[in-house]
Design a protein that fits this description.
The protein is mainly beta. Strands 21-22-23-24-25-26-27-30 form an 8-stranded parallel beta barrel. Helix 5 (406-421) links the parallel strand 23 (384-388) and strand 24. The protein is globular, with a radius of gyration of 29 Å. Residues 1-31 and 287-296 have low confidence and may be disordered.
Length: 818
């Protein structure tokens, strides 16, 4: 016979076992209440129109099999005759069809089944089993269709998508073509939280407490007693607080609930410490289940959010969590270089990591809603986002652009953008337009307030701006009073007199600079500013025969400025809340100052392959506290040529330069200087720069004259990647002489070979003029560098990557996928 305590414990265990089994069953069931399935795999694709392509009986067996996201334009050939024109990237558009067959289990007949598209460029029509679900002309917006009434539960289903990017030009930059963002299959119960159905705000925040308000929109079909339980978790997954509310309105198809709770001693989200909380919203049924935390037949929906407060002040500029700071941002288009428009989380993360290392803390999504993954990364990595909606309203910029659809679709598209993005702590500013042609017309007095009203009806926690290229008192958008921040595109010479023009208003530099550089190319003298083009509306007939641009930060277009010139003004005044430099990365299209044969931009601080230009280090020396010393140009010139040597540096009083061991002088920045310069007669050998503070050496840098190309060096950003079929390793290919020096003018053709659990996703070199394909197993080096992007397959193992070139010692690297 068991002792009393032991008997009692066993009895409790026996009594609780059936209850625990029930609870486990209910918990397991509840986890299946909502499923979100990656729907990217196994699509059939056909480039070209197909009569009746939406019908179930279409024979697509001969179509190309691929996984999404997919951009068919990046696979095409460059041509000045492509309708997109060089401004649109000089790549083909057209019509494409995507089809996929799938099954939905018969036991899901009482569920609701949706398909979510993060973005399709452009004019997409979607059918399931021959039934037309809808049409969306906007290539950048996310959207959802319900498929439930048209599905064969337990049988075969066919989804068909027609993408029409044939009528061009419809953009002023490279758009890409196809289902270029992710697709998701979502299953919920009939009583569920709506698409983008939560809205979390933090109206009262201090270091000691934060008020959290949660607004939840639900579809309400069930008639039994229901509750909504919202639980807040910290970054470690520990429960912070929870609240449960009864769901009323039994006869209403939709229900909106307001909940509020307080978090003590909250961790505040900031650019330096982007702390994230999670709110898990659960629909629960029955009093016992509400009390126990278990639910049956309900829903579970997770929202990531951050707690922070900020302010734009007319005189003091921007502050975050009570601390003054400047927004140090860049503008970026959506393409990912040689990968095209097809979104890839790792490629986005790499871009943001490079910008963060430069000191950048802001991103403007120019000029459209971004991929959801970009905002997720900005939340995690600490970037302040200006989330932009439109590049035009009712008046066109390109013949076939969004102005054709604005009147019918702007409300729906803008609402969807705000609903999708308003919980992201990284989003600080809504932009309702970029360089809108109507800014000088009275029609803006009508349109701007309407758009602002749409935004404020869904989110009142963030200011609204427009990016104005004519920010004068006559600007009708500004006159309308619809915007909270006066956005300046360029016009840095007017910054100082902003308050004379707009008394009491708040400033943001929505777009700045437009400096032009080709990585690794240098024209002298470096202190002579070239204005290329001198006018935006006239053909450019000057420049270099090879369509290169000097990387000394001494070339700008008529509307722009050099990087240094803008930053000197921006750093001078507190009321200048921040800036977004045009651009962080080079991008496809807009090959200013040239046109064909150039096919991509020269604006980037980083080139299209992801190799920093020299100006990157000016920003790093100004925007970070890390020690910086960067000298350039390379040291391979004709003997006796006059060469300007620049140095960007910080955390030091001076820099001394040595040529072949002999000092050529000590230089110090004076006034508002951002660099120092020596003008030397070239002789082969070694340049050495030494920065000092209070007489102590801070950093030393050397550049040596390189001999002829002798070997290849491979450097991977990551040697271990995920075996998920999507992860990437970016392999830098360097052409070296026999001593290991980078050969700065090397243009060797490099051939790639790959074996194992990966494939070459694309190749690049940063050359704005190259017409070689991105989908290839070869690439010429450009000024000594090339890039190969390796993508994993779905099986763990090794990837062997080899690079060879005629007359050079090759190189091999092994990557691992897990």
């Amino acid at each position: 016979m068991l002792p009393g305590k032991a008997f009692f414990k066993k009895a409790v265990r026996l009594f609780c076992l059936p209850f625990a089994l029930v609870m486990c069953t209910l918990t397991g069931y509840s986890q299946q209440a909502r499923t979100v399935t990656d729907f990217d795999k196994g699509w059939h694709f056909h480039l070209g129109d197909v009569t009746g392509g939406e019908k179930e009986n279409v024979n697509d067996a001969g179509w190309r099999m691929l996984n999404l996201p997919h951009d068919w334009s990046i696979e095409g050939k460059f041509s000045k005759d492509n309708p997109a024109t060089p401004e649109g990237g000089a790549l083909p558009g057209g019509i494409g069809w995507y089809r996929k067959t799938f099954t939905v289990p018969a036991n899901q007949k009482n569920k609701l089944i949706y398909i979510d598209f993060d973005g399709v460029y452009q004019k997409s029509d979607v059918w399931v089993n021959g039934h037309h679900l809808g049409f969306r002309p906007n290539g950048y917006i996310s959207f959802r269709y319900e498929m439930t009434p048209y599905l064969n539960f337990g049988g075969k289903n066919t989804i068909a998508v027609k993408v029409d990017n044939s009528v061009q030009p419809n953009s002023r930059w490279y758009s890409g073509s196809g289902i270029y963002r992710n697709v998701w299959l979502v299953t919920t119960n009939k009583t569920a939280i709506d698409h983008w159905g939560t809205y979390i705000t933090t109206p009262k925040v201090t270091s000691s407490s934060a008020t959290i308000q949660i607004q939840t929109q639900l579809t309400k079909i069930a008639t039994e007693k229901l509750g909504l339980k919202t639980t807040i978790y910290d970054e470690a997954g520990v429960v912070v607080k929870s609240v449960t509310s009864e769901i009323s309105g039994h006869d209403s198809p939709q229900v909106s609930l307001q909940q509020e709770l307080t978090i003590e001693h909250p961790h505040l989200w900031s650019t330096g410490h982007p702390y994230l909380y999670k709110a898990v919203s659960q629909i629960v049924s029955g009093t016992a289940f509400i009390l126990s935390g278990f639910y049956h037949g309900g829903d579970s929906y997770t929202t990531t959010f951050g707690i922070r407060y900020f302010n734009f002040d007319p005189d003091k500029g921007f502050s975050l969590n009570g601390k003054p700071m400047k927004i140090l941002g860049v503008c970026n288009h959506h393409d990912l270089g040689s990968l095209g428009a097809a979104v890839n989380t790792r490629a986005l993360e790499r871009q943001l990591q490079m910008l963060k290392a430069m000191g950048c803390n802001g991103i403007r999504t120019s000029h459209n809603p971004p991929a959801p993954e970009l905002l997720d990364l900005c939340d995690k990595m600490g970037f302040i986002v200006m989330d932009e909606a439109f590049d035009c309203w009712e008046w066109k910029k390109a013949k076939y652009d969004y102005h054709l659809y604005f009147k019918e679709w702007h409300k729906r598209d803008l609402e969807d953008q705000i609903l999708r993005d308003r919980n992201h702590p990284s989003v600080f500013i809504w932009s309702i337009g970029n360089e809108i042609p109507q800014q000088g017309d009275t029609s803006a007095l009508r349109v701007a307030p309407e758009l602002a009203g749409i935004v404020h009806s869904l989110d009142k926690t963030r200011p609204i701006t427009t990016a104005n290229d004519n920010p004068t008192k006559g600007n009708k958008i500004i006159q309308s009073g619809a915007i909270d921040l006066i956005g300046y595109n360029y016009h840095e010479f007017d910054y100082a007199t902003f308050h004379e023009r707009f008394p009491g208003k708040k400033f943001i530099a929505t777009e700045t600079t437009s400096g032009l550089e080709t990585r690794g190319h240098y024209d002298m003298p470096s202190d002579s500013i070239r204005i290329w083009p001198a006018r935006w509306d006239k053909p450019f007939t000057e420049g270099n025969a090879d369509n290169s641009v000097s990387a000394y930060d001494n070339v700008r277009p008529a509307w722009g400025s050099t990087h240094e010139a803008t930053w000197k003004v921006m750093k001078k005044y507190d009321f200048l809340s921040g800036m977004f430099v045009w651009t962080g990365f080079d991008y496809m299209g807009e090959p200013t100052p040239y046109s064909w044969p150039s096919r991509s931009s020269y604006f980037g601080i980083i080139d299209m392959a992801g190799f920093p230009k020299d100006i990157y280090y000016m920003y790093q020396s100004e925007w970070t506290n890390k020690n910086v010393l960067h000298i350039f140009p390379h040291w391979n010139w004709e003997r006796g040529k006059t060469v300007d040597v620049w140095a960007f540096y910080n955390n030091a009083d001076e820099v001394e330069l040595f040529l072949n061991g002999k000092s050529v002088g000590v230089k110090k920045k004076t006034g508002d200087d951002l660099h120092v310069m020596w003008r030397l007669k070239y002789e082969p050998g070694t340049l050495k720069a030494v920065s000092r503070k209070n007489g102590q050496v801070v950093l030393t840098r050397e550049i040596r004259t390189a001999g002829p190309p002798a070997k290849i060096e491979l450097i991977a950003d990551r040697k271990n990647i995920k075996a998920d079929g999507k992860d990437l390793s970016f392999i830098t290919v360097r052409i070296l002489d026999k001593a290991g020096n980078l050969v700065p003018n090397a243009g060797n053709m490099v051939n790639f070979k790959i074996n194992g659990e990966g494939f070459i996703a694309s190749v690049d070199n940063g050359d704005e003029v190259s017409h070689d394909p991105f989908k290839a197993d070869y690439r010429k080096a450009f000024n000594g560098l090339a890039l190969a992007i390796v993508q994993s397959k779905e099986k763990a193992g090794n990837i062997t990557f080899t690079a060879t070139s005629a007359g050079l010692q090759g190189a091999t690297m092994v990557l691992k996928t897990k």
